[in-house]
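Section 3.1: Structural characterization of target chains.
Under the original work plan, the team committed to producing a structural model for every single-chain target entering the pipeline before any wet-lab resources were allocated. The record below documents one such target. The sequence was received from the expression subgroup and is listed exactly as submitted; it comprises 170 residues.
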Amino acid sequence: MGQILIRSGRAAKLCQNLGPVGAALYKAQQLRLRYLPPLEPIWLSSQSLLHPVKCRPRTSDFDVFCQVLAHREYRCLDEVANPGLIIDCGANVGYSAAYFLSRFPTARLIALEPDPANFQVLRENLAPYGDRCTALSTAVWSGSITNDTSLRIHSTSGETSTICSGLLAC
């Protein structure tokens, strides 16, 4: 009996987070991916996204979609109002970035992703958002900073860019 209540609670959350149609499609895709993995990418939708997103077969993409949109990992940001700039470090294939761009329609976003295969899908998923989003194939890591309050991005080609200066407290 307890398992049934837990499962019905999860179903209710999915309906709340994705909408009834989105929840039904999500469950159908979940079963399809588990028992009949596609050979080609599929497109997933959510009521939290302005545009569908690409999901590659046999990758963690569906699990990440689940985490970000079905389980609403970023619900802690529901009270944030109109951020001007969002930086998504480790943007993967862009599900979080697409959510942020949909949730905050006036914000600009910089998405950073070092993996070439993920970066290709990231660009596809964020293309509908136009010039509000800049995708960079690069990584961010911690390091020693001495009296420098700039966020610097080092690309794999060796170039360095300063995204913002004087905004970080060390």
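The longest strand covers residues 150-155.
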